[in-house]
């Protein structure tokens, strides 16, 4: 029976997808970045369980231009995660940046930070572009209404002349 192979392949693909869908932070103790998408000037918090109970780490956000920061246990709880924060520089360019944390025990974990102009859901601090953009399209005559009217008149005469020539050609009168 030929349907067995495609069904087996589909089941295998679903199983592989299910294995890859587990969040990295849950099973591997990765570096969680909050918010994952932000705007320049925003404060970002990172969190990891990879350093163990009451573990500390040295964070590195120099990829985005924020330098180093410290991760320490969040609470007096013996099972507390190590957490820290840094501020994305206002000069940061949009893109994806790798944030690294090195635990005192030697474990290294990473997480991604996405910097965008709009930030997470269009944050209020984001600046939108304003003003005129020089694209080279349109505005060749400028805002002068006399020049604009002259250009429109020239186009109308050209269209009328072309129509007249096509009409004569279709009648067989020649040019």
Order of helices and strands: HHEEEEEEEEH
Number of helices: 3
Tell me, briefly, the overall form.
rod-shaped
Strand content: 25-35%
What oligomeric arrangement do these chains adopt? single chain
Number of strands: 8
Helix proportion: 25-40%
Q: Sketch the major β-sheet.
A: 8 strands, mixed
Radius of gyration: 31 Å
Quote the average pLDDT.
74
Q: In whole angstroms, how far apart are the ends?
A: 75 Å
Unreliable stretches:
1-28
Structural class by SSE content: alpha+beta
Strand order of the largest sheet: 1-3-6-5-4-7-8-2
Describe the overall structure.
- The structure is a single chain.
- By secondary structure, the protein is of the alpha+beta class.
- Helices cover 28% and strands 26% of the residues.
- It has an eight-stranded mixed β-sheet, with no helix packed on it.
- A hairpin with an 8-residue loop joins strand 5 (68-73) and strand 6.
- The protein starts with a helix and ends with a helix.
SSE layout and pairing:
Layout: H1 4-20, H2 24-28, E1 31-34, E2 37-38, E3 43-48, E4 57-60, E5 68-73, E6 82-87, E7 95-103, E8 108-115, H3 145-171
């Amino acid at each position: 029976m030929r349907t067995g192979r495609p069904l087996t392949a589909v089941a295998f693909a679903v199983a592989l997808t299910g294995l890859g869908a587990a969040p990295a932070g849950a099973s591997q103790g990765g570096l969680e970045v909050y918010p994952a998408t932000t705007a320049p000037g925003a404060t970002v918090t990172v969190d990891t369980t990879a350093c163990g109970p009451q573990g500390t780490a040295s964070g590195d956000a120099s990829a985005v231009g924020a330098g180093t920061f410290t991760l320490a246990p969040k609470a007096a709880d013996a099972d507390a995660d190590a957490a820290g924060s840094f501020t994305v520089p206002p000069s940061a360019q949009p893109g994806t940046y790798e944030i690294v944390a090195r635990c005192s025990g030697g474990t290294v974990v990473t997480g991604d930070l996405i910097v965008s102009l709009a930030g997470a859901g269009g944050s209020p601090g984001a600046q939108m572009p304003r003003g005129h953009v020089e694209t080279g399209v349109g505005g060749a005559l400028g805002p002068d209404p006399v020049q604009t009217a002259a250009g429109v008149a020239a186009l109308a005469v050209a269209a009328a002349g072309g129509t007249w020539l096509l009409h004569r050609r279709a009648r067989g009168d020649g040019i």
